[in-house]
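Following up on my earlier message about flavin-adenine dinucleotide. Here are the inputs again, as you asked, copied directly from the submission form:
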Amino acid sequence: MTSRVVILGAGFGGLEFSTMLSEAVGGEVDVTLIDKSDAFVFGYSKLDVMFGRTTPQAVRLEYRDIAKPGVRVLRETITAIDPDARRVTTDAGVHDADVLVIALGADYDMDATPGLAEGGNEFYSVAGAERLARIIPTFSEGHAIVGVCGAPFKCPPAPTECALLLDDELRARGVRDACRISFVIPFGTPVPPSPETSAALMAELAERDIAFVPGRRVSSIDPERSVAALDDGTELAFDLFLGVPKHRAPDVVIASGMTEEGYVPVDSATLRTRFPGVYAVGDVATAGVPKAGVFAEGAARVVAKHLIAELRGGERPGPYDGRGSCYIEFGRGRVGRVDIDFLSGPTRTGSFNAPSAALVAEKELFGSSRRARWFGT
Ligand SMILES: Cc1cc2nc3c(=O)[nH]c(=O)nc-3n(C[C@H](O)[C@H](O)[C@H](O)COP(=O)(O)OP(=O)(O)OC[C@H]3O[C@@H](n4cnc5c(N)ncnc54)[C@H](O)[C@@H]3O)c2cc1C
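Thanks, got it. Here's what our run produced:
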């Protein structure tokens, strides 16, 4: 009998999961949602913050606004997870669960790239984006590198978006001719599952004279010489470095013994881990899909439907289909979209929707609808 559901992490996965449970069985089961932060921030808002389109304060969605029947939201830091006992220890106490959902996302491993913390600037955290919002306006000449330090990383199109938005920013200030931009990514193309999307992005990079360096990752930074070393030994001198750090599961998940090669392996159809009653969704898991909010949300829905069916005795959901749409900033106020399908067919597919005014509005709706659904604001 499922009576205590404990969800670790209130990001895309945890928020959607707790919302679905509250809507269907709120009050019948005891749902506890735990996060160490006091607010959620959409990943794409970090690009808006770093390029001065908004402020960190304006993009915070406060957890205290969540008022879902049957859901208790706790601001606690998880310090240990025992998946055999389904017992979670936090800085405030112990939580025992009948069903445990791990949705703790991916952390950044700054130490994996020597020199990155001292000599580079990561733009994947709110703090990093906020810092860059002060640095970017001071960059007016020289070489800027947008560089990825390891795969997998969240939101595969985001580094390309960053390079295009940097070009926009330098043109707006009239200093683009005095600057060079290079873009280093470990994939052969910007969005490998969709050749059409990649072709459109590569055309955009070429048109703006952004040097595309595919199939390479940044392996170290020399802060003294302001040089980035790539994994083939090539050295690139820079005046501004905008980096995507290597990712891995949070330390507390690794210490729990649940991970293999940095992440929690799951059955991609059901999101079950090898521990009975323990599921993992989103960036923390290896489910055969990219690390992005839409996929975390989709996986969380499958687990929620499964539990609801168990409680209500209804029909079991089908397997997780690994489908999701990502909006892509093309710069100059344009937004495109890629529709990805990783699991429902024999091969992964990705179809491209060219930038349009309708997609600008659709991206807005993507954010505002989730804000309303999860936070009631
Ligand atoms: C620049 C950028 C742009 C992006 N753009 C998009 C986009 O356009 N579309 C899209 O779908 N995705 C996008 N993403 C990716 C998206 O943000 C993530 O993939 C998504 O947030 C993953 O959801 P999740 O639920 O797995 O984890 P998260 O949303 O990361 O949530 C994990 C939660 O766990 C909490 N946590 C971690 N450790 C602990 C602990 N020890 N104790 C308590 N709490 C803890 C964290 O505070 C966090 O709230 C982007 C990301 C970036 C960086």
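One observation from looking it over: The chain has a mean pLDDT of 97. Hope that helps, and feel free to reply on this thread.
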